Amino acid sequence: MQKIVIQGGRRLGGTVTVSGSKNAGLPLLFASLLTRERCTIRGLPRVADITTSLRLLEGLGALVGDDQFASIVVEARALSSSEAPYDLVKTMRASFLALGPLVARTGRARVSTPGGCAIGSRPIDIHLAGLERLGARIRQSHGYVEAEATRLRGARITLDFPSVGATENLLMAATLADGTTVIENAAREPEIEDLAAALVTMGARISGAGTNEIRIDGVRELGGCDHSVIADRIEAGTLLIAAAITGGEVHVIGARADHLGALLAKLDEAGVVLAAVSDGITVRAGGVLRTADIRTSPYPGFPTDLQAQFMALMALGDGQSAIIETIFENRFMHVQELARMGADIRVDGRTATVRGVAALSGAPVMATDLRASVCLVLAGLAAQNTTEVSRVYHLDRGYERLEEKLSALGADIVRVRA
Ligand code: EPZ
Predict the structure, then answer these.
(1) Distance between terminal CA atoms of the chain?
(2) Residue 117 annotated among the catalytic residues of the structure
């Protein structure tokens, strides 16, 4: 068990580079199950969730080669299993993205149902309804989903909600279906555009990725790919907020303004000075930090994965802000921990009302999930005295070398044995 110890109150300064995207990397790795050919994915972040996916792919019989994460090669030439076991799926829900590719490629898949997590019940009904529309026979028993189909058939699918995971699962499955599939009310996240771009280089016929209507003309088989993953927009947003919350000035290489529109608009509203440049975004704290209300929603709305980080910033804002979480029913676990640091936040259902305070004070706090953990790190950077964040395994699921990056920007932050 480890914890992160931060001596707060230092302004961040300098240049930092964003890692590759975890949430784009995961479906890209599972897309390799669609082909017998070699898939090379470049720039994946060295985080626990990526490592778990590689173990799952190996468990299915794929050959995995990794040269120090610069690039990862997956060759699913001969799959020895079509089962994604509970032990792996329970540690990483995104393992459920193996379902679509497996049933499309092999005609059969048995995947553990992911179950709920700290931030919500996380149902899979939209994934399953879509696969049934594609002609799969779905059975659920003993905590597993079993899907079977001789060959999937193209269909028109209207999603009840623009679920990222369901869009990715169905997009991958439809590439090998017989005929044309149209996914309506599809999720529009950049991670889906990145997945579609890789699939097209594998020979898939896809149009409309990034819009709410995606069309896929199925093909008999796919080839391999050599694809570089997009930069992690959530890590980029986290680093921009880290600079703002410490009153610093940082150049974030790899941050894309076109992927961060909703956040940049809110930071601007809060008086943070931003400049999009060729290789990234420069952020500089303005004078007084003003407050801004946010409401999370599917892309291009304000990302739920930046809600906790933005709340940490608003805890020091000059005034009151309302933070409305519409995506997950239980994503305010960080509120109590911020309150331990002196924040003034009241939660009423899906709305958190944040009254800015003059200063936060360091305290021992506990991470509960990935984004809540980094929110506490950001609060610790701004707080007076010492903050200790425990259960940092949550952080390691999605942030690569975060303390190294922050200390290179001048933060006093170390990881120690708990
Ligand atoms: C992806 O999760 C991300 N994970 C999440 O990031 C992110 O918070 C989420 O999208 C929303 O942006 C990955 O990409 C690996 P959804 P996903 O399906 O695909 C409901 C992080 O911090 N829903 O878009 O699981 C669901 O309950 C993680 O990196 C159904 O009701 O999210 C939720 O309320 C956390 N039925 C909403 O849709 C379904 O079948 C959005 O979920 C599927 C989803």
Answers:
(1) 5
(2) yes
Task: With residue 47 as reference, give the H or E element that holds it.
Answer: none
108 within ligand 1 shell (Cβ under 6 A): no
Q: Which long-range contacts does 114-120 make (Cβ < 8 Å, 24+ apart)?
A: 114/89, 114/90, 115/90, 115/143, 117/93, 117/369, 118/330, 118/333, 118/368, 118/369, 118/372, 119/328, 119/330, 119/331, 119/333, 119/369, 120/328, 120/329, 120/330, 120/331
pLDDT digits 0-9 by tens, 192-201 = 999 999 999 9
Whether residue 300 has a cis bond before it, omega within 30° of 0: yes
Q: Tokens standing for 5? A: 């110890």
Q: Is the C-beta atom of 397 inside 6 A of ligand 1?
A: no
Q: Which residue has the CA at smallest separation from atom 13 of ligand 1?
A: 23
pLDDT in tens, 262-316: 999 999 999 999 999 999 999 998 889 999 999 999 999 999 999 999 999 999 9
At 309, which amino acid appears? Q
String of DSSP letters for 328-384: -TT--THHHHHHHTT-EEEEETTEEEEE--S--B--EEE--SHHHHHHHHHHHHHSB
Atom of ligand 1 lying closest to residue 23 CA: 14
Instruction: Check if 327 has its Cβ closer than 6 Å to any atom of ligand 1.
Output: yes
| Amino acid symbol at 263 | L
DSSP state, residue 257:
G
On whether the CB atoms of residues 308 and 389 are closer than 8 A, the answer is no
Residue nearest to atom 27 of ligand 1 (CA): 122
At residue 402, what are phi and psi to the nearest 5 degrees?
Answer: -60, -45
